Each structure stands twice: as C-alpha cells, then as structure tokens.
Amino acid sequence: MTAHIVHVVHRFDTGGMENGMVNLFNTLPPERYRHTVVALTDFSDFRHRITAQRVDFHALHRAPGHGLGWTVRLWKLLRRLKPDLVHTRNLAALEAQFVAAAAGIRATVHGEHGRDVFDLYGRNWKYNLLRRAARPFVSNYIAVSEDLETWLRLAIHVPPRKIHQIYNGVDSEKFRPRTGPRPAFAHPESVVFGSVGRMVEVKDYPTLTAAFIQLMRQQPERSERARLVIVGDGPTRAACLDLLQGAGLAHLAWLPGERHDIADIMQMLDVFVLPSKNEGISNTILEALASGLPVIATAVGGNVELVEDGVNGILVQPGDVAGMAQALLGYLDAPARIAEHGANARRHAEQRFSIPAMAEAYATVYDQTLGRWR
Asked: Is the pLDDT reported for residue 123 higher than 90?
C-alpha cells in the first residue's frame, strides 16, 4: 500500500529546506510513498529538480496578515486529497496542523529546520505559545540538528519520544573535491573564499564582506591572491556590492546573484564561509564538506555540529568582523592547512551525511506515525 503524504510549507523556492525535500522525494521509493506539496503562498521552478517521481504542487496564495481565507482553501484541498499523513515544516506552516486536524487527519509530522532573524533563539513568547498549542495535534517531530532537538524538548516541552533528530544528507557524487586545475575563474595561485545562500538578513553576508575588506586593508600586499565569491540573491546583495564598491575592492569579488550550477561553483572555491546569525543544519555547509572545502562558520545552531574547529574548519562568533578576517587570514597563507582540513571535511561528509541514510530515517518516522493511526 502506497502512503500519500502531503507536505505543507510556507513557500517552495530556492533554499536549504527545499533542497532537502527534493533529495527526499528523489530517494524515497515511490511504491511506498506518494507526495504532494502545498505551498501556503507560492512555489517556483526549483520543483523541477524532483526527477525520480511525479510530485503535484498546489499554491494557496496566502496574503500577508491575519486573514483566514487560506485555512478554508487548505481544508477543502486536504478533504479532496485525502492524505494518509500531513508533514508541515517550520513555524510559517505550523498553523496548517490545526487545519489538518479539522480535516480529520490524525497522522501528522512537523519538521523544524531552523529559525529566522525575527526569532533567532526561539524565545518569542507568542510564537512559542502557538508551538505549544499545536503540540497535541503533532504525532511526531523531526529536528534537523541536536540544537533544535534540545530546544523542542526544553522550550516547547515536546516529549522526547516524539522527537526524531535527522541530519540532512548530501550527494557525495555530485559534490566532490576538485581534481586538476581550477575552472577558469581566478589565477591558479589565488585563494578563493566563497559562500552560497539566500542573501537575507539572517545569513549576514555583510559581515563576511566587511571582514574581506578589513583583511585587504590590513594586508594590501595580499590583494593579489585573495578573492571573494558570494552566490545568491536577496535584499543584502546590494549592501554587499556597495561595501565592496566603496572600498575600491569590487574587482576582487564576484556576486553573480542566483545560480543553479552550485556543484560547479564549489569547484571554484578553496574555502567555504557561512557567516549566519543562526542555522539549523546548513545544506550548503554539507555540500562544501562533500566538495572537500574547509569551512569557516559562525558558532551558532547546527553549525557547531558540522564544523570541528581546527579539524575541518574554523568557528567564529556571529557578527565578529575582526574574528572573521582573522579566520580568512588563517587560510590565506596556509595551503597545507587548506588541504588537510579539506580532506577531513570530505571524510566527514561521506561518513555521516549520506542521503540514503537520511531518507530511511524519514521513512522510519513516517511508518511509525502511520502505524499508530492505522
């Protein structure tokens, strides 16, 4: 018997959570699970990355604010789709748990993938009131990091038996270390620091940009070798470009906007950098590790579970421009350290973060949830 799972998200667009969903849909056996995605707002062409089976998409076009028209549309849609299980993700889709209950669906899962800048540490009392109110309607929770698992248990008071911590997986065939010369982008002797992600406030790319500028000002003779790449689009991209232009260093940086050839981009880099204010489990860090890149990351959320300071990367405090500049310098003059930490990164990715292991862990949660209510 094939189980029909409806996945409810705020929006299905370019992002780490969506990338994880794509990997899940492409890996779970279609004879066991059929999937439908309901976006409360809208969805993008990112869905075309799903290649292993057909997944239907529905957009409810929820308007900003507190209008409840979307709940009626979702209720009607769920009554028509008749799913065996509803899986919501993150706070923005949590209210769908109440609608699922009203539609008579008892087998439910809620996933926590990370928190946004408006509630970095999960302490907002209104949001937590909503989370606790939804708790009786959620059969099982999935947390993508130990940090989120602990928060669900201590702050939201979810019983430990209902929480399942599952790391995201990464495609270690698609993302792999560079062999041979760097693709035509920078001088072979350059050290290219790079990042990939949505250029939104929580990712804090201005801190990385300011750290690069500080390094170049303090060590101007190194400008012949250091390069900066930030791939992605969003509201802070213009701010980063302005910082570089104002410092007269725009010629040392490449900020091309959104790209879809991320595995190729990783091949251009020597060191990956993620300056986030908070993270769940970063898919781009996983992709960087699989690509054999050392990772400089902020010591927040799940980053500390992926980056071991001095082994496969360097951890710095969020918002610390001087600390970030020092971490960049630590790799700029140390090709042997880049090689050693990069090899450790690749080994780490292969041993701990396989996509099949992730998919089987999700299947176990789905089967357990379905078995309880069948």
From this structure: no
**CA nearest to 6, candidates 115, 80, 116:** 80
What is the three-state SS of the chain? CCEEEEEEECCECCCHHHHHHHHHHHHCCCCCEEEEEEECCCECHHHHHCCCCCCEEEECCCCCCCCCHHHHHHHHHHHHHCCCEEEEECHHHHCHHHHHHHCCCCCEEEEECCCCHHHCCCCCHHHHHHHHHHHHHCCEEEECCHHHHHHHHHCCCCCHHHEEECCCCECCCCCCCCCCCCCECECCCCEEEEEECCCCHHHCHHHHHHHHHHHHHHCHHHHHCEEEEEECCCCCHHHHHHHHHHCCCHHHEEEEECCCCHHHHHHHCCEEEECCCCCCCCHHHHHHHHCCCCEEEECCCCHHHHCCECCCEEEECCCCHHHHHHHHHHHHCCHHHHHHHHHHHHHHHHHHCEHHHHHHHHHHHHHHHHHHHC
The 10s digit of each residue's pLDDT in 232-257 is 999 999 999 999 999 999 999 999 99
The overall average pLDDT reported for the chain is 94
For domain 3-169+354-373, which architecture applies? 3-Layer(aba) Sandwich (3.40)
Q: Are strands 85-89 and 56-59 parallel, antiparallel or unpaired?
A: unpaired
pLDDT tens per residue, range 19-55 = 899 999 999 999 999 999 999 999 999 999 999 999 9
Tell me whether domains 3-169+354-373 and 191-352 share a fold. Answer: yes
- Please tell us whether the domain made up of 191-352 is placed in CATH 3.40.50.2000: yes
Q: Tell me the per-residue pLDDT of 304-348, one tens digit each, with 9 for 90 and over.
A: 999 999 999 999 999 999 999 999 999 998 999 999 999 999 999
What residue segments make up the domains of the chain, in order of their start?
3-169+354-373, 191-352
